[in-house]
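Exercise: predict the structure of this protein bound to 6-O-phosphono-beta-D-fructofuranose.
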Amino acid sequence: MVNLLGEDNKDIKTEIKKIGVLTSGGDAPGMNAAIRAVVRTGQYHNVQVIGIRKGYNGLINGEIKEMYSKDVSNVMNLGGTILHTARCPEMMTEEGVDKAAAIYKILGLDALVVIGGDGSFRGMESLAERGVNCVGIPATIDLDMNSTEYTIGFDTAVNTGMDALNKLRDTSSSHERCSVVEVMGRDAGYIAIWCAMVGGAEDVMFPEEKGNIDDAKVIQQILANRSIGKRHNLIVVAEGVGGTQKLAQKIQEITGIQTRATILGHLQRGGSPTAVDRMHASMMGYHAVKAILAGEKNKVVAYNRGRYEILDLKEAMQMEKHIDREIYDVIKILAI
Ligand code: F6P
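Solution:
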């Protein structure tokens, strides 16, 4: 592990002349701030930066554009990604990866910065085996990347979820209803438990906690809360648990409480990034380029225990991370 914090040295001696940057997989708020940091740190060190459109697709098809400082003006505040993104099934094939690696060489790139989630990092592993020097920046709203405590986009997605819960609370309390809200997160429950906590939900169902995926327990909680005078209920369900509409129907049938289901879906992927996302994206973009300039090969940027780190790609992909169950315990205590 290399800690690259410390003074920036503009006169750093480096063989690096040209790097590529792409965003891949699901977009995440803050990706633009990361692109901006990569382009401007590169330019600061006289490195040519090539923007690659639509993730690995653009690499395979040679959809590229040289990027200068002015190309990333006024993008910090924008959600989505100015480079566009895609999920790329071709990268699951030998031919696709061969082609991507061949284009990297034809373009004369010294390194490729990949801004994306786990699937995108797996693509980096395949490219690394073919001599491509990849450096990854973790970006997914799901927070489900094992090597890092933070992934770009998470904070904005949680804030969007919190905002939705605030609004649903208004209407649920006016009608004395129960509201069941499904949040994104694929197979992970990080967004769900954070939204439940900061939105003041009474219960949350998330995939990692098998024991809580029990409709009967949720219904018991709702009834217990009604019996002590609560007039509305907010329940959060993670996408990885699903069945939100059915759960709402069941709650209504069993309790007689009018219940509505809301699925936030892709709403949580958009929006102007929060300050937290802009900060991590800017710092991670900077550290990715610094790592490349320092001669690092096949690395990922991570944020752990309050510091930015540069980890070996292979090791990062084998790391484990566990959801903080204490958050769930506290949600339950505060739900009374
Ligand atoms: O990984 C981010 C994410 O938004 C997940 O939360 C969700 O399951 C998935 O992407 C949706 O993917 P797509 O936009 O391809 O439908």
